UniProtKB/TrEMBL annotation:
It is found in: Cell membrane. PROSITE patterns: NA_DICARBOXYL_SYMP_2 (PS00714). GO terms for molecular function: symporter activity. It is a multi-pass membrane protein. GO terms for biological process: dicarboxylic acid transport; L-alpha-amino acid transmembrane transport. Keywords: Cell membrane, Glycoprotein, Membrane, Symport, Transmembrane, Transmembrane helix, Transport. This is Glutamate:proton symporter. The chain crosses the membrane at residues 37-61, 81-102, 160-179, 200-225, 237-264, 347-366, 372-394. It holds the Pfam family SDF. GO terms for cellular component: plasma membrane. InterPro entries: DAACS, Na-dicarboxylate_symporter, Na-dicarboxylate_symporter_CS, Na:dicarbo_symporter_sf.
Amino acid sequence: MKKLALHWQILIGMALGVAWGMSSSSLGLNSFTTDWISPFGTIFINMLKLIAVPLVLVSLITGVSSLSDISRLSRIGTKTIGTYLATTVLAVVLGLILVNIFEPGKAFSPEKREDFKEQYASTASDKSSDAAALEQQGPLQPLVDIVPENLFLAMTSNGSMLQVIFFALLFGIALILIPPDKAQPVNDFFEGANMAILKIVDIIMMTAPYGVFALLAGLVVDFAGDDPASAWELLMVLGYYCIVVIIGLALMIFVVYPALVVTVGKTKYTHFLKGIFPAQMLAFSTSSSAATLPATMECAEKNLGINKEITSFVLPLGATVNMDGTSLYQSVAAVFIAQAYGIDLSLSAQLGIVMTATLASIGSAAVPGAGIVMLVIVLQQAGIPIEGIALILAPDRLLDMLRTTVNITGDATVAMMVARTEGQLHPPTEITVR
């Protein structure tokens, strides 16, 4: 009997997790779910985070050193970063267009706004404090933060991924510049380490359906509490806002990315979607581009035929700096909050949102919930009350799952575009999804 494909196993795990969570709320099993099921979801996330830094470090060093000359690295890097910035700006502008057309913020009553402010006051305050610390930094602080003062300290946190990438690029370039006979043993070591890490990824992915089940069961229990009806009521109140965000994210996946894949990547979008689907499901369940990176790289190489030379450079960089879904969400959320407070934003204020959201996406950590902290900076720049963030905290996890899916799809799209222009795209005759 043929084994069920991995993406179907993940889908089944997601469905069973939601069903268990709702049943737990109805039957009073919340404590059991929190104590005995949810921890397995945390373990699964921890395993993915465990492998993220070693994967980025080793794969980038291997990828850069294999380019053999600096001019090629410069060409690929310019294409990658330029395309990432272009898609991010496009996502922000698309979000602004949609939120100005549908005006979801005007659907809130004053009473409901006060309820949200009171319920989420402490969380909103914490996010504001985090953003205030970032606001006090100088204009070049993001550039300073890229260069680590201690590599081993940088490797202790997935939030310092840019620093790890900086060192990996520097090390890879150094391997190109030293004599080949001296560089070869080092290259062989990292090539072997890369194979071992990818095998660890395979082992971790075998547990994905169970991890996804535990993650979603715990999420639903936290969201619904002892009254499942309250979860549905909350979703109905914020449904309009969610729909606008979802429309924008859907346009990215089903309009923007198909246009790029077909015209530049010269590949059928159905083939692309089928190949990246397992990574999309993992991104949806984990809400973390960094945690999904191993699966994204595996899908891009094995299912889409993108050369490892490209994936090992483009995808780790994209997981850190390319956040199309997060950028679109930030623009919609900012204007939504302004509308809820009766604030009319001028064209210049909305152009400011485009710039701030684009830059914020580059500095946003590829972990669950990081977009909320960066959103506070966007709100402050536009002069929108920070307290309004309380309005969108309730459905944020659901939207975080969706926008992370868009983020990794955008990464894979750019990888395919760069691979095609570099002659490094060789689609397999049959997609393998386990």
